[in-house]
Each structure stands twice: as structure tokens, then as C-alpha cells.
């Protein structure tokens, strides 16, 4: 796909993200005891950088990492609203502590669908964490248990998040501004 020309304006710096992750992990420790193994489930592909930083901050416990891929925007900027599971977990989560990690909650369709699916597998405890939340875009009644940053209705990239598969490798979160 060819995208329109754009520039990226920094919105959340790498330093701010790192500080927020430390605070989020303090909250995670309150919910999940350190003597019990935690299964950290990343939603591909946008959460891969966030999950890498989260699990290293949780080095006080045994952590398993698993991934699930749900259909997302594809190459467009609008949610399809219909959520399909493209890649399921490799491991079992029944009776286990599970932390589901998402990059952005936008309309809410993706994470609410994934949470109902995973809850049907009867985990011991399941929590959700999203790096970014755009509450003004919500179309279903859903809120992640933990949120890194609430942001306005802007299209963002970086720190794992893409526009047309680019910009995932930026260390900060930036907002896409079209120049034409
Ligand atoms: P939802 O189902 O509408 O909540 O969509 C969540 C998914 O949409 C996220 O996991 C992202 O893949 C994608 N998404 C939402 N907002 C943005 C954005 O600003 N930039 C890039 N992807 C986004």
C-alpha cells in the first residue's frame, strides 16, 4: 500500500514510557503474587515492544510469554469491527494467572473479544493492560484494567505500533500528521 506523505510529531517520549512501565509493574505486583507463575499474553503485532519492556521489569517472578494475533486494521486507519483470531496461543491458560497486553484500545472490539475468548478457558485470574487508550473512540463498553496513557483521537505510531507496517521501531510514540 502507498501511504500519503506524512511527518511524525513526538507525543510520548521513550523516557516517559519507561517511567510509566515501572509504575504499571508496581500495580501488576499488587494483583499477581510473585511466587506464582504469570502468563503474559501479547497481542500481535503492536504489543511486541511493550511486552519486552514489561516482562523485563517483572524479573522478580517466573513469566511465560505467549502470543495471540487478532485481525486488526490491516493497512487501513479504520477498525474493521469484526475480530478474527489469526493465531491462537501455544499454551494452556486454564487455572493460571494471565496478563493480556495490548498496544492501543480504540473502538474496544479487539480486546473485548479476546478477553471473552480467554475467559472461556477459565484462567485463575486475568488482567488486561494497554499502553494507550483512546476513550473518545470507544464503541463497546470496555476498559482495560491498567492503562499506560490516555490519548486523544489521533493516529499514533512507534514503540511497536505501525502505520501501514512502518514505524514500529521508533523508540517513542508519535502522532501521524499528513502533509498533503
Ligand atoms: P480496536 O479493536 O478498535 O480497539 O483496535 C485496536 C487495534 O487497532 C490496536 O491493537 C491497533 O492495532 C489498532 N489501532 C488503533 N489505533 C491505532 C493507531 O492510532 N495507530 C495504529 N494502530 C491503531
Automatic annotation (TrEMBL):
CDD domains: PRTases_typeI
Domain Phosphoribosyltransferase: 14-163
Enzyme Commission identifier(s): 2.4.2.8
GO terms, molecular function: guanine phosphoribosyltransferase activity; hypoxanthine phosphoribosyltransferase activity; magnesium ion binding; nucleotide binding
Domain of life: Bacteria
Gene3D superfamilies the record matches: 3.40.50.2020
Cited InterPro entries: HGPRT (IPR050408), Hxn_phspho_trans (IPR005904), PRTase-like (IPR029057), PRTase_dom (IPR000836)
Entry's localization field: Cytoplasm
Family that this chain belongs to: Belongs to the purine/pyrimidine phosphoribosyltransferase family.
Protein's name in the database: Hypoxanthine phosphoribosyltransferase
Native organism: Pseudooceanicola spongiae
Gene, per the UniProt record: hpt
Amino acid at each position: 500500500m502507498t501511504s500519503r506523505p506524512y511527518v511524525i510529531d513526538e507525543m510520548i517520549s521513550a523516557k516517559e514510557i519507561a517511567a510509566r512501565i515501572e509504575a504499571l509493574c508496581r500495580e501488576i505486583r499488587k494483583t499477581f503474587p510473585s511466587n506464582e507463575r504469570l502468563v503474559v499474553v501479547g497481542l500481535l503485532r503492536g504489543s511486541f515492544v511493550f511486552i519486552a519492556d514489561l516482562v523485563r521489569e517483572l524479573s522478580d517472578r517466573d513469566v511465560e510469554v505467549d502470543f495471540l494475533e487478532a485481525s486488526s486494521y490491516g493497512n487501513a486507519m479504520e477498525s474493521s469491527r469484526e475480530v478474527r483470531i489469526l493465531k491462537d496461543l501455544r499454551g494452556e491458560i486454564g487455572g493460571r494467572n494471565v496478563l493480556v497486553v495490548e498496544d492501543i484500545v480504540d473502538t474496544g472490539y479487539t480486546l473485548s473479544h479476546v478477553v471473552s475468548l480467554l475467559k472461556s478457558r477459565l484462567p485463575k485470574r486475568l488482567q488486561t493492560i494497554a499502553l494507550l487508550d483512546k476513550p473518545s473512540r470507544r464503541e463497546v463498553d470496555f476498559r482495560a484494567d491498567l492503562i499506560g496513557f490516555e490519548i486523544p483521537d489521533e493516529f499514533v505510531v512507534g514503540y511497536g505500533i505501525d502505520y501501514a507496517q512502518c514505524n514500529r521501531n521508533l523508540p517513542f510514540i508519535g502522532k501521524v500528521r499528513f502533509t498533503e
